């Protein structure tokens, strides 16, 4: 009993009080800044370094949806054209928005990336129940989504929770590149949701295929058939990235 | 004539030195080796012009030796199964059958391992589930999608009343062609390293370290000791973090909610420390081929030390309460027993093996990298139940905290990165690492030009899923969650 009391006292209140103001500290690799100006002649070091083909050059562009935030391009570039920042607000409601160019800052991106529709605010603004489906996710995304509900992040305080059955859910959160073997179950889960319903794609694998984009063992037809409401980049996305994206989406 | 080539963890061997036996000799050698106490580490095929070459890697843990032997199966596409005499082969032989169509004649059950999934691709027979018949017999099917935020797989329980008589675990839903990608992108080492980090996202350091070790060995370099010790620190932090998370989950499942919160909060502190070292809570980006990308600065060292102190005391108290509570012990003790003999026969590894009395730990049995510089004491329990698998985690947390604390103060000066030379041509290298789940094994085979021609990966889950199936037999089905969490196995690590 004494131990239990000591334990309770030590534990304190580990919850992050203001999630909207919380920041992730360096060396976390979040929003990458692309420098304006020309790349050195003939250089393609970043393209060679990038594992997922997230970059294109002349003009310089970076697809946050494909990016693993590994920092390999930053190390490879002799001209310092790419620089990671710890900014964690990376979510967007349109796939196109994730393709960033020089001059975009973390703040300018975050200010416009997520639109909050009135209908969404009205229906789900105070309670959003989500069914997560891992379709060949490596457990990185799954662990971070799981962490969103823990005693530190406590996403549940906003009425946003993961639930066990798709029948209880207002939305589906997809992780993983969608293996051929998970494709039917994923589609079943989606069909079991009520309408209206929202779909969130979390992590490079779900958004773009990530490291597995070239694999012959995937079936990504779900994405062609299903409108996606929210994209949350990362490999895996940090819990604050996910929570913040959902809050912005709900207009909170 | 020797029936196998002897070598060590991370020691490349010319492929030509691996004895090529006839299928019958090969089988005999495997059975004799198993009887002599050698343990199966890997068994994989490689398609060649003359047929499929099968290579087996066995371990003599007491002598820190590995042994490899091979055989070639040509157009007859069958060979005598080893499984009837050495049960630990059963899943490996199923895997080879699925991948290459080589029939292990006499194998009791050639069900697909990961490619053809029951109910999804009926063309790939046999997909039938094991069936039990009789009064009050019923089946419970769970998954592929489970109730929590976790990976998918299908569990089929054959029950009589509340008791589970058999559990069949059908995996493969996560199969995304990892080994195939290793070959297709073999000319892009940066890609391969990131891919290794994603084999199992909870074992980033374990798998990336095994890949880096194999690549460095083929390139004939050893990273500087400073870099190796930073890998050790990251590996132990990974172990501490996951073990804390597992204890949180186990505590939650028996409604000890304080424990769930406390262990969970301690885990957050550990993985945030990993983030402070390398920018990722799971250690992504830390390991490089040839060393590490991030140094441990004096401030980093101070931060690690203070977090460890906090976690040590918190975990000690939480464990005192958890393992001192009668209502918790009533759930954990004698639940989900895997007896030592069963554990040995099916080839369990990692904490699950150590909880069933098998003293197996790659860190001391086949020392590698930084672990070659100091001893890691192997710890075992014998009861093989949920209690043992939970308790050994709390003991290992304390041990890993001590290891990190000692090593972080002894970090030698040295370069962080040391680029490897060109990979040795025509060699096999086996890279073993003790991830938090147990033995991770990677095998790389190079062709005449030193390019990868086969890359084989084994996550410890490949051995241990069958251990879970054994554990739940004769248990109430309501004990399944604690049995499952006491193993915490990887789906994608298995499915690849
Ligand atoms: S940080 Fe992103 S863009 Fe840069 S190399 Fe890594 S995956 Fe490619
Ligand atoms: S995005 Fe990264 S962390 Fe998420 S499932 Fe894919 S590889 Fe794993």
Topology:
The complex is a heterodimer of chains A (252) and B (496).
Chain A: H1 2-11, E1 32-34, H2 45-49, E2 55-56, E3 61-63, H3 72-76, E4 82-84, E5 99-100, H4 106-113, H5 118-124, E6 128-134, H6 140-147, E7 160-162, E8 171-175, H7 183-192, E9 198-202, H8 204-208, H9 221-225, E10 230-232, H10 239-249
Parallel strand pairs in A: 6-7, 6-8, 8-9, 9-10
Antiparallel strand pairs in A: 1-4, 2-3, 3-5
Chain B: E1 5-7, E2 13-14, E3 20-21, H1 23-35, E4 39-48, E5 51-60, E6 65-73, E7 78-80, H2 90-100, E8 103-105, E9 137-142, E10 154-160, E11 163-170, H3 178-184, H4 189-197, H5 204-218, H6 225-253, H7 257-278, E12 287-288, E13 291-292, H8 298-323, H9 326-332, H10 340-346, H11 350-355, H12 362-365, H13 386-409, E14 427-435, E15 438-446, E16 452-458, H14 461-472, H15 480-487, H16 491-495
Parallel strand pairs in B: 3-6, 7-8
Antiparallel strand pairs in B: 1-6, 2-14, 4-5, 5-6, 9-10, 10-11, 12-13, 14-15, 15-16
Bound molecules: iron/sulfur cluster (SF4) (2 copies).
Features:
heterodimer; A: 252 residues; alpha/beta; five-stranded parallel beta sheet; three-stranded antiparallel beta sheet; 10 strands; 14% strand; globular; B: 496 residues; alpha+beta; five-stranded mixed beta sheet; four-stranded antiparallel beta sheet; 16 helices; binds iron/sulfur cluster
């Amino acid at each position: 009993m004494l131990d239990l009391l000591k334990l309770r006292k030590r534990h304190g209140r580990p919850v992050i009080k203001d999630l909207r103001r919380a920041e992730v500290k360096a060396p976390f690799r979040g929003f990458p800044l692309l420098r304006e100006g020309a790349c050195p002649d003939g250089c393609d070091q970043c393209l060679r370094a990038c594992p997922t083909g997230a970059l294109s050059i002349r003009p310089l562009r970076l697809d946050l949806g494909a990016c693993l935030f590994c920092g390999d391009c930053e190390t490879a570039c002799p001209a310092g054209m790419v620089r990671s920042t710890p900014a964690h607000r990376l979510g967007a409601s349109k796939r196109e928005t994730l393709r960033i160019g020089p001059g975009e800052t973390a703040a300018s991106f975050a200010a416009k990336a997520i639109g909050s529709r009135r209908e969404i605010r009205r229906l789900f603004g105070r309670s959003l129940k989500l069914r997560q489906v891992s379709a060949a996710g490596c457990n990185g995304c799954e662990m971070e989504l799981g962490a969103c509900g823990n005693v530190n992040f406590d996403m549940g305080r906003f009425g946003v929770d993961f639930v066990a059955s798709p029948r209880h859910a207002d939305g589906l959160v997809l992780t993983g590149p969608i293996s051929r073997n998970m494709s039917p179950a994923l589609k079943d889960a989606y069909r079991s949701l009520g309408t209206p319903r929202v779909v969130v794609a979390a992590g490079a694998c779900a958004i773009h295929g990530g490291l597995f984009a070239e694999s012959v063992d995937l079936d990504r037809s779900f994405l062609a058939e299903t409108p996606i409401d929210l994209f949350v980049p990362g490999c895996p996305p940090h819990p604050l990235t996910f929570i913040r994206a959902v809050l912005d989406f709900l207009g909170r | 004539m020797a029936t196998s080539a002897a070598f060590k963890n991370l020691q490349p061997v010319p492929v030509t030195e691996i004895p090529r036996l006839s299928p019958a000799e090969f089988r005999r050698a495997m059975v004799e080796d198993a009887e002599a106490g050698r343990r199966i580490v890997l068994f994989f095929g490689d398609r060649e012009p003359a047929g499929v070459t099968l290579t087996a890697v066995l371990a003599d843990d007491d002598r820190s030796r590995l042994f490899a032997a091979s055989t070639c199966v040509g157009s007859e596409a069958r060979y005598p199964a080893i499984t009837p005499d050495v049960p630990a082969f059963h899943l490996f032989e199923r895997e080879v059958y699925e991948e290459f169509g080589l029939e292990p004649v006499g194998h009791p059950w050639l069900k697909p391992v990961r490619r053809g999934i029951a109910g999804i691709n009926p063309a790939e027979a046999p997909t039938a589930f094991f069936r039990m018949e009789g009064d009050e017999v019923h089946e419970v099917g769970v998954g592929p999608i489970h109730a929590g935020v976790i990976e998918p797989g299908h569990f089929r329980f054959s029950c009589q009343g509340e008791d589970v008589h058999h559990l069949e675990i059908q995996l493969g839903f996560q199969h995304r062609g990892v080994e195939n990608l290793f070959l297709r992108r073999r000319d892009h080492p940066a890609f391969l390293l990131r891919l290794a980090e994603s084999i199992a996202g909870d074992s980033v350091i374990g798998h990336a370290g095994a890949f880096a070790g194999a690549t460095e060995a083929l390139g004939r370099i050893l990273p500087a000791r400073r870099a190796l010790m930073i890998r050790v620190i990251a590996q132990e932090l990974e172990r501490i973090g996951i073990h804390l998370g597992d204890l949180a989950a186990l505590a939650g499942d028996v409604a000890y909610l304080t424990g769930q919160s406390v262990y969970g909060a301690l885990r957050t502190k550990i993985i945030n420390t990993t983030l402070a070292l390398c920018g990722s809570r799971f250690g992504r980006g830390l390991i490089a081929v040839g060393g590490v990308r991030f140094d441990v600065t004096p401030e980093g060292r101070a931060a690690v030390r203070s977090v460890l102190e906090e976690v040590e005391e918190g975990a000690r108290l939480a464990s005192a309460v958890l393992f001192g509570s009668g209502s918790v012990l009533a759930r954990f003790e004698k639940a989900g027993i895997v007896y030592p003999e069963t554990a040995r026969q099916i080839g369990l590894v990692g904490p699950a093996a150590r909880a069933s009395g098998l003293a197996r730990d790659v860190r001391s049995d086949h020392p590698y990298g930084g672990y070659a510089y100091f001893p890691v004491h192997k710890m075992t329990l014998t009861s093989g139940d949920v209690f043992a698998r939970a308790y050994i985690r709390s003991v290992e947390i304390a041990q890993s905290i001590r290891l990190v604390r000692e090593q972080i103060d002894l970090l030698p000066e040295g370069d962080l990165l040391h680029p490897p030379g060109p990979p040795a041509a025509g060699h096999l290298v086996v890279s073993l690492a003790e991830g938090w789940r147990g033995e991770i094994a990677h095998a790389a085979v190079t062709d005449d030009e030193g390019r990868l021609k086969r890359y084989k990966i084994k996550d410890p889950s490949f051995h241990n899923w069958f251990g879970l199936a054994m554990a739940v037999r004769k248990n109430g089905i309501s004990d399944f969650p604690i049995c499952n969490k006491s193993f915490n196995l990887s789906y994608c690590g298995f499915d690849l």
